[in-house]
Request: fold
Amino acid sequence: MPTDSPHDRALLAAVHPGDWRNPAPADRYNLVVLGGGTGGLVSAAVAAGLGAKVALVERAWLGGDCLNTGCVPSKALIHAGRLATDAQRAAALARPEREAPRPDFGVAMERMRAIRARIAPNDSAARFRDLGVDVFLGEGRFVARDALEVGGARLRFARAVVATGGRAAAPPIPGLAEAGFLTNESVFDLTAPPARLAVIGGGPIGCELAQTFARLGVQVTVFEMGAHLLEREDADAAAIVQRALVRDGVRLVLGAKVLGVARDGDARAIRWADGGAGESVAHADAILVAAGRAPNVEGIGLERAGVAFERSGIQVDDRLRTTNPNVYAVGDCCMAEKFTHAADAAAKIAVQNAFFFGRKKLSALVMPWCTYTDPELAHVGLSPRDAEARGIALDTYTQSFEHVDRALTDGAEDGFVRVHVRRGTDRVVGATVVAPHAGEMLSLLTAAITNGVGLGKLAGTIFPYPTQSEAIKAVANQYMRTRLTPTVKRLFETWMRWRR
Reply:
């Protein structure tokens, strides 16, 4: 639940106003959207913009995870942690008697709440009402293949979109529920820092928040079952992020299986094993669970609507149709790519397919993602593992930031740009970037994949000097040098001799 901060009161006034009155339902809607996160909001806005009669149903807060418990609050807090670290690094350039300012956790959290409240009007009930959408706040459930009920009102529809999102999944660790734990849905309600924080899970959320809390003065320990953090990512890239977390004071317990949790006074005792070396116990004042997500598919009447689902989510085809051809699903409730921008793109596909003969495919999207540690780790397209599974041969080009002038001037040389192309061509099919602003740099490579732009074209592009994005130009130049084969070089030498 939100705090009593004036910023949180402003947030709720926008995304779940206490005095909201649901409208009288229309006889029939072109589209009913269940869920007011990114996927639902985009679906409703696009359909309303096309002239459709739209109803939007949300049981909690409009804006979903992204605004309330995900992207916006986490990135605001990450920025505060980065500022704290920059201040400490800047102190090294100051006179010896100057002491680096200490971060104030409460101030950082209040700044986060202020930013969240400032963004909230974009997702507000009032804004979508003004877009012509009928906004219903309350528990929505399908009651038929073409109808949904909320607050006693029956909403009949020609088409529907399910965008109910997901939630943090708690691993089945004995004693964890009894001891109490935080997730991304509750960690941003803190007003004071725990002295010691245990993070269960070394994926993107775990890494981002572990580093940030450490930078804000918390003693952090990460428990990860794998051999290294961010196991989904390029191993070289993950190793750079892992070194950064250790450098910021995060203790890593890798290859760890958490066996149980118990209360020990005001603390939590975490019992774990590391694969044959016996059991150990660590203590923490709070536990953050960041061990995956579960789709929100229960209790919304999918059975009544003829929509098939499993524990992994709603079944959809490549056009995002469910087993009820008039019902579509988007976002975390049905997709493997659990990102805000993925839900946004999928919502546009679903609306187009719902009303314009169903030709858009989810598989056609080029989906980038970024983990917002410092440095950031961003990826798009195929990895070598993906390519091998598909029988695609790759050529790979890597440029370390150790040889990029701007990275040296910024003290950010621990990173690289790595680009994969189809063997024997310059066609970009995948890329990984590790850099302070990797997410920003990746967009050029995403555009290259989406539009079929090869490394040859990128080599002919002028990049401003000095910028970190020159690493992309350097990768392209590596490819161009492969074209200068011994035979081609001899031909050039013959030509030059003739021209003298």
About this structure: The longest strand covers residues 153-162.
